[in-house]
């Protein structure tokens, strides 16, 4: 496996970030994961120097302290140029929210989940004066020199776009040619995160996947930083003063999304201990209602969510599919056998499915997307599904539970057992929801 990875890895990432074989080698199998991953050692042939994550990016433009609560101003339009709004948007979208003091652990945790906390994504504000990179560890912005337009001051103008790029090298050092998959998944989660936090502040955003527009936005600097453009959000202005409501229909339960307590929910979000072995606890009707509403607010609609429910105070065990803001039952009975057949890593069951409350599978229409967009279908579909995956993580956190993204699943088995359209639909995310047991780790909240 190692020799093969070596052979195919060298140049292809730079030339074609998402080669067509990625579907077979990173989604339908895990062939592209180097054998060294188990030991946490660098993947062979991956010697690119990484940026020191603690190093400031350059002369910083300090950001205001983020607020403890996220809410739109009740009587004035929300303005992203307002320093308090900008600080809140960046911090709660991708900021450093928790510090884990466990010796030998992964110390820094941000607003979105990340495979082994590598955080390959970067968030950049595009303003009329240039491109400004968010530096979460110092809670500041830094001008990307290659982007400077006109005047030679680093003054921040009014942000018009937020761009997400990805630095594959740090993730590839561990994961080899599997990195593009993880980076695409995480970019989608970050896009969903910005969209969610913006809505909670009363900001209207339009999420974009169009490759040409994306490349235009990144062209001035992405070549010099070695990053891959992944997605963007156009900042369209304010919603009605005081409003955060997503435009979808209201849930009959009266629950709306994003929730009013989003800031504290994000501060408490976590993925559980190293091996996901939760306590058996049910998901409640309120969680299901939040899930139904949250999935309806995902910026792109070309995904489906299948939920295998084991423990719920309101739903019978079985297989549910999210459609038009509701979860409809398509199969009855305890899904444990299905979960253990789907959720495998090289012949072993990936986590303790006997005590999870439910597991979500996000599926996309791969066949038609590849026919239409070719290799770029990979980026586009992972943006969609990633945005949905982050919503699921936040819904779980709101109800005191953990959602654990786990790529240890058999995509072909999932396709068959979930009744997906063969050759067309593919599962790209597996998320298990459960009540994480207390662990040895000790996380402190981070505020700037
Ligand atoms: C795209 C992606 C893939 C992941 N894959 C796995 C996995 O295969 N196995 C696993 O145990 N955890 C996986 N995780 C969970 C991460 O390890 C977890 O998010 C990370 O430790 C950060 O923890 P936090 O979310 O509590 O901050 C994945 C996370 C992401 C975002």
TrEMBL record:
Residues 36-66, 230-257 are annotated as: Disordered. Gene3D superfamilies: NADH Oxidase. It comes from the Bacteria. PANTHER family: NITROREDUCTASE MJ1384-RELATED (PTHR43745:SF2). This is Nitroreductase domain-containing protein. It comes from Streptomyces xanthochromogenes.
């Amino acid at each position: 496996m190692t020799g093969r990875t070596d052979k195919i890895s060298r140049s292809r990432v730079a030339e074609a970030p998402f080669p067509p074989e990625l579907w077979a080698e990173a989604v339908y199998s895990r062939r592209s994961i180097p054998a060294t991953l188990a030991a946490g050692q660098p993947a062979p042939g991956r010697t690119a120097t990484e940026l020191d994550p603690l190093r400031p990016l350059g002369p910083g433009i300090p950001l205001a302290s983020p607020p403890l609560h996220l809410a739109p101003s009740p009587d004035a339009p929300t303005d992203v140029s307002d320093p308090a709004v900008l600080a809140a948007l960046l911090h709660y979208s991708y900021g450093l929210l928790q510090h884990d003091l466990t010796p030998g652990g992964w110390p820094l945790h941000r607003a979105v989940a990340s495979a082994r906390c590598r955080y390959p994504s970067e968030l950049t504000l595009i303003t009329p004066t240039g491109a400004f990179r968010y530096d979460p560890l110092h809670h500041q912005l830094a001008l990307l020199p290659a982007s400077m337009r006109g005047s030679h001051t680093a003054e921040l103008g009014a942000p018009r776009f937020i761009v997400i790029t990805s630095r594959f090298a740090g993730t590839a050092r561990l994961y080899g040619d599997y990195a593009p998959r993880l980076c695409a998944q995480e970019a989608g989660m970050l896009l969903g995160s910005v969209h969610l936090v913006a809505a909670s502040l009363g900001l209207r955003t339009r999420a974009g996947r169009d490759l040409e527009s994306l490349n235009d936005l990144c062209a001035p600097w992405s070549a010099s930083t070695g990053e891959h453009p992944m997605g963007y959000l156009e900042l369209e202005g304010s919603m009605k003063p005081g409003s955060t409501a997503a435009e979808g229909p209201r849930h009959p339960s009266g629950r709306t999304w994003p929730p009013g307590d989003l800031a504290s929910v994000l501060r408490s979000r976590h993925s559980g201990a190293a091996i996901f072995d939760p306590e058996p606890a049910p998901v409640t009707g309120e969680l299901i209602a939040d899930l139904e509403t949250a999935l309806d607010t995902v910026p792109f609609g070309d995904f489906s969510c299948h939920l295998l429910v084991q423990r719920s105070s309101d739903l019978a065990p079985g297989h549910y599919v999210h459609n038009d803001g509701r979860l409809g039952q398509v199969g009855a009975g305890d899904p444990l056998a299905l979960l253990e057949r789907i959720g495998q890593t090289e012949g072993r069951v990936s986590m303790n499915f006997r005590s999870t409350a439910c597991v979500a599978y996000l599926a996309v229409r791969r066949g038609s997307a590849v026919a239409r967009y070719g290799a770029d279908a990979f980026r586009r579909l992972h943006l969609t599904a990633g945005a949905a995956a982050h919503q699921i993580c936040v819904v779980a956190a709101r109800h005191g539970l953990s959602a654990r993204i786990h790529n240890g699943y058999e995509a072909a088995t999932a396709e068959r057992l979930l009744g997906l359209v063969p050759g067309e639909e593919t599962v790209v995310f597996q998320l298990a929801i459960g009540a994480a047991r207390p662990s040895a780790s000790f996380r402190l909240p981070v505020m700037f």
